[in-house]
C-alpha cells in the first residue's frame, strides 16, 4: 500500500514539476558527490591533525627524556653505589674447564698464579707491539 502512495507522489513530481528521472538522478549524484567530498575533507583534515599531534607528542617525549637522562644517570649511579658500597663482597665462583688431572699439574708448579699473570702480561704486550707495527706500517 505504501508503494502505491510513493508511486503517486513520484508521478506527480515528474509530471507536474516538469522534472525528468534523469534530472533527479543527476541531482542525487551531485548531492552524493558534494557530501562525499565534504566528508573526505573532514576525515582528511582530522587525520592530518591526529598525525601532527602524534608527531608533536613523540618530539616532546624525546626532548623530555633527553632532559631527564643526566638526572636519571646520576640517581642510577647513586643507587648502585649505595646498593653495593656497604655490603660485604661475595667470593667469586671459580669455574675451570680443565679436568682435575690438568689442574693438578698446574697446581704442582710453584707460584703458578704469579707465573700465569706474568705470561698473560707478556702475551698482551706482544699483541700490542704487533698492532703498533701494523698501524705504523701503513
Helical content (DSSP H or I, runs of 4+): over 70%
What ranges have pLDDT less than 50 throughout 5 or more consecutive residues?
none
One letter per element, helices H and strands E, the order comes to HHHH
- The helix tally amounts to 4
Using only CA atoms, what is the Rg? 43 Å
Q: What fraction strand?
A: under 5%
Q: What is the overall pLDDT average?
A: 84
Account of the 3D structure:
This protein has 2 domains: 1-90; 96-138. The protein contains 4 helices and no strands. Helices cover 83% and strands 0% of the residues. The chain has 138 residues and is mainly α.
Please give the structural blueprint:
Blueprint (H helix, E strand, L loop, with lengths): L1 H15 L4 H64 L15 H9 L3 H26 L1
Can you tag this structure with a few keywords?
rod-shaped; 2 domains; 138 residues; 83% helix
What is the structure about, briefly put?
It contains four helices and no strands. The chain has 138 residues and is mostly helical. It folds into two domains: 1-90; 96-138.
Amino acid at each position: 500500500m505504501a508503494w502505491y502512495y510513493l508511486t503517486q507522489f513520484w508521478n506527480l513530481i515528474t509530471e507536474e514539476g516538469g522534472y525528468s528521472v534523469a534530472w533527479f538522478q543527476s541531482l542525487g549524484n551531485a548531492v552524493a558527490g558534494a557530501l562525499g567530498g565534504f566528508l573526505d575533507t573532514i576525515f582528511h583534515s582530522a587525520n592530518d591533525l591526529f598525525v601532527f599531534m602524534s608527531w608533536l607528542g613523540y618530539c616532546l617525549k624525546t626532548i623530555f627524556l633527553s632532559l631527564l637522562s643526566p638526572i636519571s644517570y646520576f640517581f642510577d649511579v647513586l643507587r648502585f653505589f649505595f646498593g653495593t658500597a656497604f655490603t660485604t663482597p661475595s667470593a667469586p665462583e671459580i669455574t675451570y674447564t680443565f679436568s682435575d688431572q690438568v689442574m693438578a699439574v698446574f697446581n704442582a708448579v710453584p707460584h703458578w698464579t704469579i707465573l700465569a699473570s706474568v705470561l698473560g702480561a707478556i702475551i698482551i704486550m706482544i699483541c700490542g707491539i704487533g698492532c703498533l707495527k701494523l698501524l705504523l706500517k701503513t
